[in-house]
Amino acid sequence: MEEIQVDTRPNQKWYTLAAADVTRALNSDAREGLSQSEAERRLAKIGANQLAANKRKPLFTVLLDQFKDFMVLILFVATLISYFLGEYLDAITIIAIIFINGVLGFIQEAKAERSLQALKDLASPMARVMRDGQLFLIPASRLVPGDLVLLEAGDRVPADLRLFSANRLEIEESALTGESVPVSKTAGALSAVSDDAVPLGDQKNLAFMGTMVTGGTGQGLVVSTGMDTEIGKIAHMMNQAEIAETPLQIRLEQMGKILVVVAVLLTLVVIGAGVWHGHELFTMFLAGVSLAVAAIPEGLPAIVTVALALGVQRMIRRNAIVRKLPSVETLGCASVICSDKTGTLTQNKMTVTHIWHSNTTYQVTGSGYEPHGAFLLQGKQIAPDRDQALVQLLQIAQRCNNAQLSCEEEKARRLLGMGKAVKRWQVVGDPTEGALKVLAAKGLGFDPETGKGRQEGVRVDELPFDSDRKMMSVVEQKSDGSYVLLTKGAAEALLSRCSHIMWNGQVQPLSATMRHRILDQTEEMAAQALRVLGFAYKPLQGYRRGQSAEIKESDLIFVGLAGMIDPPREEVRPAINLCHQAGIKTVMITGDHRITAEAIARQIGLMRGYGEIMEGRELDRLTDEELAERAERVAVYARVSPEHKLRIVRALQSNGHVVAMTGDGVNDAPAIKTADIGIAMGITGTDVTKEAADLVLRDDNFATIVAAVEEGRNIYDNIRKFIRYLLASNVGEILVMFFAMILGMPLPLVPIQILWVNLVTDGLPAMALGVDPPEADTMYQRPRNKHENIFARGLGWKIVSRGFLIGLMTLLAFWLTWRENPDDLVHAQTVAFVTLVMAQLIHVFDCRSQHSVFHRNIFENKYLVWAVLSSIVLVLGVVYLDALQPIFKTTDLYFRDWALIIVAAGIPTFVAGMGGVLRRGRPRPANKSTAGTVRS
Ligand SMILES: Nc1ncnc2c1ncn2[C@@H]1O[C@H](COP(=O)(O)OP(=O)(O)OP(=O)(O)O)[C@@H](O)[C@H]1O
Ligand SMILES: [Ca+2]
Question: TM spans, by residue (predicted)?
Fold first, then answer.
């Protein structure tokens, strides 16, 4: 086969070439695009359409970073001193422990890094491309020169394109030129006046990678990709998920600094007291250093990062992609979720079921996007082509339409043993328009995929749909050369622009009674939860091509209405119920008709306690204060425009709410940015909204938001769990040493033991707490206050009291053993060491519950069980292995010792546990659920 040459010389002046020459140079097709196989060949040859990504942190640096901490520095100093004093064994052991700790930290961080990287990859943009004459949505990284790409408002231009068609196309190129006023683009070739290069901003028939489409639509061929693009040349980095530190991480770092000071002071006291009571200075120095190490919760920031990263991964598994790490914390605080209706609360699978014109209602059968069905009049099938007005309506539905139907032949699963091909129809484009295409196919009988068999008119212009006008029009040239405007849109918006009506096939002036009749009919259909669209047209006399500015959507001739169902998603009702229990308010925001919105809201159980409905035009009349006051009670905002969303977010925020807000269109971006948690749709969302969002829903599903909130709460709870565990352990360790020195006892723990407990035995269980499953009442609680301190709700008290008990019991076990045989200090120290370890390993189970250890099944978190078992095995090794005994200054323990250890170690947790049981009954939801209760 002959090698196809593609002209991709980077300095080609594409803007001077005529469209046909560009197509030839790129060996492509301006209508069908490349073939799939050719595109793949080019991809293999040229490489992915990516900018050289920001460099990953090399693993070796991650490893080195582990040894840069303050604590590690202290330990190195301690090692050096031990070495110079001739305590080689101590020196080597400290080094070994630093090393083990470093490796553990490294593994954690590398893991966190990996999952955050995966997150960046998920956030990568998509492109609409034509291949083999079919429209596909593919990752922008797979584009190659020659690909035919479609653009619309809200897109980031995915590669450098030479435009072939530009319909009111406006592109904001500040990413490239710094100029923030959008440039309006054209499709024609620019004549090269001189040899000088035209500046980028004036290359009006090129669209550049990374710039943003702010309006209109267009098509073009990819001329360069990846680093060959204009933006690649300036090697600008874009579109990466932000991986910033969360507020909690920042606060923990600050707390760490305070603890360093506390640790140093305590150390000085302990050293002073020890020396005063006659301990050797070097021993006290090492003990002091170990204590300082104990007091600084070194592992904390790392474990927080890991817990966040793992939580983020769990969210991905539940289809929620976090773009900004801090929002993971905010998610748990969400008190209002404002959701779009179409596609988020509903399935976005629209089917036209009713048509109305001239006082006649037809029913349309068939389901989904399958283009087969019949038209029924009073239950009897009719031939639609007999009814002129119906045909006119269907033709508007079919032509004033940008959706495409495509059919995948899907081989039935081998597993089922059936070789039969199953046809599955899909819509590429707006589902509302898809439904109308299907309707037209049912009534007009053409092949919906290829369009064969339909009457051809040539589209010469388009006024694209926008959520403010709530309608869309096209201009067509008919075969006789005359022009016609075809319009469809929200029924009452369209009606207000009509002056005539087609009634029983006759065009006549639209009387006030007829208007009322139509509006009544609209509401009647809307009450059945149908989305109602109206259809109209007008002949354009004296229109000439290219007069787009002169077309007005007024004086139209009304034809009829179509009502389509869009069933609610099944998961939504239980999800709303869960929000209710969790004290989270749910609000529907929709461009749809008030009555349709209300009917859907009732179906999904949204109107509960605060069942008011507000329309966009009413909202316009309210001041911000009035809106804030009303917002508490409104459950549904209907017929709103994207601009209203921003006011709604602000109103709720001024009432102290933490607001999650969804959006998909370009105009939703400001509201999404302002919301505490901005949520973009993964499927229908534009690039611009995704970039503004904190969270992207892979499945556009409301239930996914609730799942993310649940995970958000769980992550925060888990962070509290291991903070509690680690800090209580540290408090215990410090108090043992502190009291022993103050009371003039011998050292209860030798330095190496303190280091071991801190750096080795604590780490694994703390990690396991980071992945603890949620407590049963996580979604029964009210959202936590955004400004809440991490130690709030009794956590601080629990840390101090349990830490105190652990320290006290360890000291007691030590004292009892030592008093019995004051000559065998090593034995007493071993008992203290093991008691401390066991007390912590028991206490770790207490940390899993806000209530008490008895509230949860101890075997539920299998990572924790393994972590605890391995910590026990490690400590047994340290105690019983002959080789390790001299290093860790331990000796064999006997049955009596173990009895003492178990009792002493168990008391802190069980005393506390009993307290918890006595204080608290069963958990209850924040709001009582109405599901399953009998109405009286
Ligand atoms: N492609 C379209 N052409 C003409 N009119 C449309 C089109 N899509 C929607 N409409 C009309 O405009 C109204 C508002 O649509 P809009 O897109 O603002 O809301 P929505 O996205 O459908 O609802 P939601 O805000 O719940 O997602 C719809 O109720 C419908 O009547
Ligand atoms: Ca919308």
Answer: 67-85, 91-107, 258-276, 282-310, 722-742, 754-774, 795-818, 824-842, 863-883, 898-918
